[in-house]
């Protein structure tokens, strides 16, 4: 299992040290939650702060947009050269066009599905995508309870990916911990995002990441 700790649960007063610590602790990606206060009822960080994160991160950035104006935010974050930019399918009229734009910027495109959105909604995008992110909580906040129906959704998505001969990865975000990570692996999930589990772990970030792996 690949691990992407969400810096939403980090201590923002010591952000550089927090980012260094998860990278040294063996994470695979640094997950960055961008919230605009409109698509979700919370507001987080913009490119000024994320550029400081990018400077100290020794692992690639995984930028998760939870915003209304996706194209505007793709243009804001593209200069930071993240590995992935993911946008919510519920908030995009022209997802196919935006996927191609993200790829043309040299970034791997991904879409995000809220808990109610069926995987079939994106079947015809799968061959153009590098990753699908399945929300296992309602987006907006860290520390929420895992919604178990994501397991069935991951299985259905996995069969659609195989049917379309796509190389697309599956990522799950929200409420992930050492109890539910193995059932996600069995369902075909490649990457998990973990915020509060990693940053609140009593034995430190490295042990938390190891336990998820
Ligand atoms: C929620 C964010 C998640 C969140 C995960 O909108 O997308 O990345 O921070 O935090 P935990 O692991 O605490 O649910
Ligand atoms: Zn996220």
In short:
This protein has 213 residues and is α/β, with parallel strands linked by helices.
Task: Provide an overview of this structure.
43% of the residues are buried. The chain contains 8 helices and 8 strands. Strands 1-8-7-6-5-4-3-2 form an 8-stranded parallel beta sheet. It has a single domain, classed as TIM Barrel (Alpha-Beta Barrel), CATH 3.20.20.70. The radius of gyration is 16 Å and the shape is globular. Helices cover 33% and strands 19% of the residues. It is an alpha/beta fold. The longest helix has 14 residues. The structure holds D-xylitol-5-phosphate and zinc ion. The site of D-xylitol-5-phosphate (DX5) has 21 residues, from strand 2, strand 8 and helix 7.
């Amino acid at each position: 299992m690949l691990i992407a700790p969400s810096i939403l649960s980090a201590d923002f007063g010591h952000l550089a040290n927090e980012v260094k610590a998860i990278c040294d602790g063996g994470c695979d990606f640094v997950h960055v939650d961008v919230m605009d206060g409109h698509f979700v009822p919370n507001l987080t960080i913009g490119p000024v702060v994320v550029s400081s994160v990018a400077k100290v991160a020794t692992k690639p950035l995984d930028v998760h947009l939870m915003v209304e104006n996706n194209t505007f935010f793709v243009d804001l974050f593209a200069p930071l050269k993240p590995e992935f930019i993911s946008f919510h399918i519920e908030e995009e009229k022209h997802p196919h066009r935006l996927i191609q734009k993200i790829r043309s910027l040299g970034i791997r495109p991904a879409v995000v599905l809220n808990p109610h959105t069926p995987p079939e909604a994106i079947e015809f995008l799968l061959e153009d995508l590098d990753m699908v992110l399945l929300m296992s909580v309602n987006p907006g906040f860290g520390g929420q309870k895992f919604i178990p129906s994501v397991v069935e959704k991951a299985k259905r998505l996995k069969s659609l990916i195989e049917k379309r001969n796509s190389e697309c990865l599956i990522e799950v975000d929200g409420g992930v911990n050492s109890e539910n990570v193995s059932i996600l692996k069995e369902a075909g999930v490649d990457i998990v995002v973990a915020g509060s589990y990693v940053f609140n772990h009593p034995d430190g970030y490295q042990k938390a990441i190891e336990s998820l792996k």
